[in-house]
Structures are given as C-alpha cells and as structure tokens.
Amino acid sequence: MPDQEEPFWKTKKLGQMTKAEWESLCDGCGKCCLNKLIDVDSKELFYTNVVCKLLDTKSCQCKHYATRHKYVKDCVQLTPRNVKKLRWLPETCAYRLVAEGRDLYDWHYLVCGDRKAVHKAGVSVRGRVVSEDDAGDLLDHMVDWK
Questions:
Q1: For residue 28, what is the DSSP state?
Q2: What is the mean pLDDT of residues 24-31?
C-alpha cells in the first residue's frame, strides 16, 4: 500500500498555509472566546465561564465571524504571527499545537472527520458558559480551565 500523504498541518509552517487551511485548524471549542482576567500585579491569567456576546453557546461558533470586529472592537484575530505570543490560548488549541510543533488531538475533526467530536470529548465550552450579556461581575465566574 502506498504511503499516505502527510496532512498539511504536519508539513507546512503556519505562514505557508492557505487561508482555508488556516481557518480549518479551528476545532470549534469556543475557548478563545472566553473572557479572561489578568491580575495587574502578578500578571497571572484567570479564565471565566463567560463568553463573548457573539458566541453561539450551542454551536460554539461566532454568530458574526466575518464582521465580528464591527461588534467587538477588541476581538483578537489569530494570525501566524501572533499565535505563539497569545499565552491565553488553551492547551488544546490546534493553532497553539501546530505552532509548538505538536500534532492535533484525536478528537479534532481534521483527524477524525467529525465536527461534533470536540463537544463529545468534552473539550468545548458547550453547556458550561454564560454570555457576557447575562453574566454580571466576571469575578463571580472564574473557573480553572486550560
């Protein structure tokens, strides 16, 4: 049997990927849309279970992805240049994994073919978050997620 071609995330650097390849790395976990807090003195990062108002909490997809900056001015756009610097990306994030030279998890849809696998594996924020429109004080919503 002939050798199977290696997938693009194993053979290309982030900056070599097409826009479609880059976008396909997103596993749909929704964790990058969590509101985070940083202690001004210690610079320690804290996660909350509060998500951006644009995140659909069932699908874990942005409701207005293409125009999100129109609604959320400080939404961070992940790029091959900034992904290594964003220490708040979750440890399971495909962008982070590939940037660090690691492989994707078995539940990533590019590996298993199932877009819902991220939810089935319990990796996504589905069922565990509240929208920032309904949250109140973020200090009341701190969680120990990575």
A1: -
A2: 95
